[in-house]
Design brief:
single chain, two-stranded antiparallel sheet, Arc Repressor Mutant, subunit A, 7 helices, 2 strands, 70% helix
Length: 161
């Protein structure tokens, strides 16, 4: 009798930890077993990649000049409003906005090479090269000019890049 009770106890302890593969009905929704077995957390590669990106951004942020870095940290990391930043730093609202813009530009320039190098692997948007950007801008300007010229005598055409 003791042996049967031990086996029964073992069976219920281990059965409670098993996840059935059969679909489970929760109200009106039916959840397939495969969806319940999928780990929705980050994979080890994603954890490593996020840690590497975080370290690279932190290092690049340290290279941004001080007044811009402070404004960036308060705005983007501390999520303070422009008015709160102006109060904390005792500067005008316009100065806060310009420092944040200039700081973001400086940070973008420092990280552009890194993003070009590892961006496609991590699913990041790769910045447009300055030469390509200039070529795109001149083609947009010529398209606008030609559409303006065409609108004088005929129908107007809008060209989007």
């Amino acid at each position: 009798m003791h042996e049967a009770a031990n086996r029964r106890r073992w069976w219920f302890r281990h059965k409670a930890q098993e996840t059935p593969i059969d679909a489970v009905t929760a109200g009106e929704c039916e959840i397939p077993g495969e969806e319940r077995l999928v780990d929705l957390g980050e994979s080890p590669f994603e954890k490593f990649a996020h840690t590497e990106v975080r370290a690279t951004v932190d290092q690049a942020l340290r290279q941004v000049p001080e007044p811009y870095r402070t404004a960036l940290i308060l705005r983007d990391l501390e999520e303070m409003s422009y008015e709160e930043i102006a109060d904390v730093l005792s500067i005008s609202l316009g100065t806060v906005k310009s420092r944040i813009t200039r700081g973001r530009d400086a940070l973008r320039k420092k990280l552009a090479g890194y993003v070009r190098e590892v961006g496609p692997e991590l699913g990041l948007l790769v910045p447009v090269d300055e030469r390509q950007n200039g070529a795109n801008q001149s083609s947009r300007e010529s398209s606008r000019e030609s559409s303006r010229e065409g609108s004088r005598g005929g129908r107007e055409v809008e060209v989007t890049p």
